[in-house]
C-alpha cells in the first residue's frame, strides 16, 4: 500500500440475498432492499444506477457497516473503507485540513506526514489554498471536494462514493472523474460509485448495476468492456448510454427519476 497499509491489497465485496426493512415510528415496516446479490472483484470499478429513493445509499451504508441488514449476507475482504457520503459531513469546528486528517489521526501518522497527505489530496481534488478555512466558509461543492480528499487520504482498499460529483459544475466534475480514474488505476482500489447520471456511470465503470425503484432489486448488470483512459464524446460510450436509457425506460421509471 502507498502509505501505512496493513498488508496486501484486498477489496472484494459480496452481497448475497440482502434485504433491508426499516421500522418506522408508527410501527409500519418500510421494505427498502428486496433481494440484493452482487459481487465486486477487488480492484474493480462498479456503479450503482437507480432512481431517487430506491435504496442506493442504503446499500453503501450496509457495506460500510453503518446500518444493519434485515437478512442476507455481506462479506468484505478485510479492507480499509473510504466513504464519500452524499452530504459532505464535515466537522464545522475543524478547519479544512483538520477535517482531511481526521481519519488519519487514528493511525500512526506524525502531524507533518498527515498535513502532507492532506495537502496532496486537497491539491488533487481542490479546493487548494483553503486549508485554514472552516467548512461553513466554503460553498457546498467545495465542501464535497474536501470530503472526497478526506476519503482518499486514508488510501482505502474500498472506496464507496455516494453521488460525489452531483453538486459540481460539469467542467469540475469532468476533471474529477478523470482524476478519480487515474487514482483508481494507480492504486487499484475497489470503487463502488452511486450516481443518478447514466453518462457518468458509463464513462467511469467496468460494471453497472441498475437498481429498480423501492424495494430495490438488481434489475440488470451491464459490463463495459472499453479500455481506459476513456474520452468524452467516444461514440461507443454514447451507444452504451443510449442502450442504458432504454433499459431504464423498460424498467418503468420516468426519465426525470434518473
Ligand atoms: N433510517 C431510516 N429510517 C426509515 N427509512 C429510511 C431510513 N433511511 C432511509 N430510509 C428510506 O429508505 C429509502 C431508500 O433511501 P436511500 O437513501 O437509500 O435512497 P437513495 O436511492 O440513496 O435515494 P437518493 O438517490 O435520493 O439519494 C427511502 O424511502 C428512505 O426514506
Ligand atoms: Mg442516496
What is this entry, summarized?
This protein is α/β, with parallel strands linked by helices and 258 residues long. It has a domain at 1-80 and 190-258: Rossmann fold, CATH 3.40.50.300. The protein contains seven helices and nine strands.
Descriptive report:
The chain is an alpha/beta fold and 258 residues long. Helices cover 33% and strands 23% of the residues. Strands 5-6-7-3-8-9 form a six-stranded mixed β-sheet, with helices on both faces. Helix 3 (111-125) crosses helix 4 and helix 6 (198-204) crosses helix 7 (235-251). The model is unreliable at 1-9 and 254-258 (pLDDT under 50). The chain binds adenosine-5'-triphosphate and magnesium ion. Residues 22, 24, 30, 32, 50, 52-58, 86, 214 line the site of adenosine-5'-triphosphate. The site of adenosine-5'-triphosphate has 14 residues, from strand 2 and helix 1.
Question: How far is the N terminus from the C terminus?
Answer: 36 Å
How would a textbook summarize the main sheet?
Answer: 6 strands, mixed
If strands are numbered along the chain, what order do they take across the biggest sheet?
Answer: 5-6-7-3-8-9
Q: Give the radius of gyration.
A: 18 Å
Low-pLDDT ranges: 1-9, 254-258
* Distinct ligands, ions and cofactors found in the model: adenosine-5'-triphosphate, magnesium ion
Remind me, CATH topology of the domain at 1-80 and 190-258? Rossmann fold
CATH architecture annotation of the domain at 1-80 and 190-258: 3-Layer(aba) Sandwich
CATH homology superfamily name of the domain at 1-80 and 190-258: P-loop containing nucleotide triphosphate hydrolases
| Class per helix and strand makeup | alpha/beta
- Beta-strand level of the residues, as a percent range? 15-25%
Question: Given the structure, what is the number of helices?
Answer: 7
Helix fraction by DSSP (H/I, runs of at least 4):
25-40%
Mean pLDDT: 91
CATH class of the domain at 1-80 and 190-258: Alpha Beta
In total, the number of strands is 9
Can you write the helix and strand succession as a string?
EEEHEEHHHEHEHEEH
Broad shape: globular
